[in-house]
Amino acid sequence: MADSDQAGGCGCTGDSVRAEKDPAYRRALWIVVLLNLGFGACEIVGGFIADSQALKADSLDFIGDGTITLVGLIALGWTAAARARVALVQGIFLLTLGLGVIGVALLRALTAVAPDADLMGGLGLVALIVNVASAFVLSRFREGDANVRAVWLFSRNDAFANVAVIVAAGLVAWTGSAWPDLTVAAVIAVLFLHSAYEILGGARAELRELAQAT
What we know:
Blueprint: H1 4-7, H2 16-21, H3 23-50, H4 53-74, H5 80-110, H6 117-139, H7 146-175, H8 179-213
Helix pairs in contact: 3-4, 3-6, 4-5, 4-7, 4-8, 5-8, 6-7, 7-8
């Protein structure tokens, strides 16, 4: 979740050049940061109360998105090498989150207890609303270059994960089993790992190009 200089075209924090020159676009990114970090903090508390691994994983997704986009905004104006190193840290951060979620899900599978389906579904619905709001804020910029469009797509795609949480809550209520919750948590963790792979690969490529240019 970094700009094109950071992640070889991942574009998860959008176009740094445009963010520097277009105040409206930069404001939109800040709104998305606040939505992600604010709701992520609320959802992780709800995840522990509901004892839902899917909610905890989704909350980390929100916090990860918000944190990485925030770092990308703060890094505007930094040198390409500095931003590439920041991207490496971002990728390692996401990789750690993904592995952590998978590890916890595996441990919970040994003593699986069904979470509070009502709270799980309710928070999943609010998470969906937050992601739709983020996508709406960014929608006016989605026809820009690949990096600009990527930001909007990430918010939109996160909404699908929220739908999966809601469906899992319904299955938990129906079956009384924890497995739908654990399955969705694992899927979200895989998304973390995929994003980490893209970011780390792009950052390493950027650093190699910079090294060759010197």
